[in-house]
Design brief:
The chain is mostly beta strands and 415 residues long. Helix content is 1%, strand content 40%. The protein is built from one helix and 29 strands. The strands form seven sheets. Strands 7, 8, 9, 10 and 11 form a five-stranded antiparallel β-sheet that branches. It has a four-stranded antiparallel β-sheet with strand order 1-26-25-24, with no helix packed on it. A hairpin with a 5-residue loop joins strand 12 and strand 13. The longest helix has 5 residues. The protein starts with a strand and ends with a strand.
């Protein structure tokens, strides 16, 4: 396989994930890659103990009309989200409809009827003590659209975004995992204007997505990517009553879509990524930002990352711009100087932020055109869309793609 472009990143191995080459979030844990699917439903397990010869070893189908796009691993547990399969729904075949307006109204959960839902909504917990044989042991139901993405690094508490009946979009919830067979919601936070059922009225334009993508939590602070509402910082010292520390929004004039908020605690920095969600940058150029968070209640932006320029990616089919970050999970490769990101049709990128005022790109890998189109929505192009990136403790870089499968890479800067 010859990449379209590469610098300091080399291909080690590749997997089509058992013919289900679409991947969203991945976790690499004890020699297995756990991969949520966007269009193939369910999730897959790939044995990556020999990274040059990855083998698909398991596939767990999703319940009807449900997606399992995001997941987390820790010790013997795998947490998998269950939510309405948005990209299979008629109302979202034009992807613009998913990324604008109040999602709860479109899904029908903001003002719920008594009609039965035809999807499974909540959080599933699996036993992965046998890495290649996940076994469901617990489930936390959600009355609404379901859970979008979860953050869990062990212990009692997990944190997630949830679309709950009566609310306009996804909000922040804390989850008590003290009994993994019976996880339960323990607390919630939403921005004023989201609680439609109680009569709150939004203050933002009706075309905007004011909803939580997901949090990353360090200590008692949750850094929340709130899509078109930007960065929300919460005090979660009382898990039953999260409270607001800071809210910063730069959209407009920038295009919104905040997707990841990665704290670098040893440097009092925060890396914030805005997701490109439309083809040909129709939603504008989306930056990756660096914030100074020495004072958590007053985050200050100090720089942005450079955007790939070696080709005209804006004219290339598909989305061009940031999507995901490697999130420095415990047990993985953890660095406050090297940042790994996916740029969709521009592949995987590595940045050196030793000087936080002048981030530099130091690595890139752009896979070739995929063999097949996995995206089943109408009018989608057969093009790579690098989605998630995970770097293991040994420094191997794993990246999923909506169409191209799992890529395993080696970065020269870690040798």
């Amino acid at each position: 396989m010859t990449p379209d472009f590469a610098r300091n990143l080399r291909l080690v191995g590749h997997s089509d994930q058992g013919g289900r080459a679409d991947g969203v979030q991945l976790m690499v844990h004890r020699g297995y890659a756990y991969i949520g699917h966007m269009f193939s439903k369910g999730f897959s397990v790939v044995d990556v103990r020999d990274p040059r010869n990855p083998r698909n070893v398991a596939y767990q189908p999703a319940p009807p009309n449900t997606w399992n796009i995001h997941l987390q691993t820790h010790d013997d547990l795998l947490l998998v989200i269950n939510a309405k399969d948005m990209f299979a729904a008629d109302e979202f075949q034009d992807e613009r409809e998913y990324y604008q307006g109040e999602l709860g109204r479109k899904v029908g959960t903001a003002q719920p009827s008594r009609n039965a839902r035809n999807w499974r909504a909540g959080l599933a917990v699996y036993d992965i003590s046998k890495g290649d044989s996940p076994r469901e042991i617990g489930f936390m139901p959600i009355e609404g659209g379901g859970v979008h993405r979860v953050w869990y690094t062990g212990g009692r508490w997990a944190y997630a975004s949830a679309l709950i009946d009566g609310f306009s979009d996804y909000m922040f919830i804390t989850i008590d995992m003290s009994d993994p067979t019976q996880p339960r919601e323990a607390g919630r936070f939403w921005l004023p204007g989201m609680n439609i059922a109680s009569g709150e009225a939004p203050s933002w334009d009706a075309s905007r997505r004011c909803g939580l993508h997901h949090p990353i939590v360090h200590g008692d602070t949750a850094y929340c990517a709130w899509r078109d509402a930007g960065l929300v910082v919460l005090d979660v010292s009382d898990r039953s009553k999260p409270s607001l520390l800071a809210h910063r929004n730069w959209s407009p004039p920038f295009g919104g879509g905040t997707h990841n908020c990665l704290p670098l605690p040893d440097r009092d920095l925060l890396v914030v990524l805005d997701e490109a969600v439309l083809d040909h940058q129709e939603d504008g150029e989306k930056p990756i930002w660096i914030f100074d968070v020495r004072e958590p209640s007053n985050p200050v932006s100090i720089s942005t990352f450079p955007s790939p320029r070696e080709a005209d990616y804006k004219r290339k089919p598909g989305h061009f711009g940031p999507h995901n970050l490697h999130e420095n999970r415990p047990g993985s490769f953890v660095s406050s100087e090297l940042i790994f990101a996916t740029y969709q049709n521009a592949g995987v990128r590595v940045f050196d932020i030793r000087d936080p005022f002048q981030p530099l790109e130091v690595g890139a890998f752009v896979p070739p055109q995929p063999e097949q189109l996995m995206d089943r929505r109408p009018n989608r192009a057969k093009v790579i869309q690098s989605c998630d990136v995970f770097v293991d403790a040994g420094g191997l870089v794993y990246s999923t793609d909506y169409n191209g499968g799992l890529y395993i890479l080696e970065f020269d800067g870690l040798r």
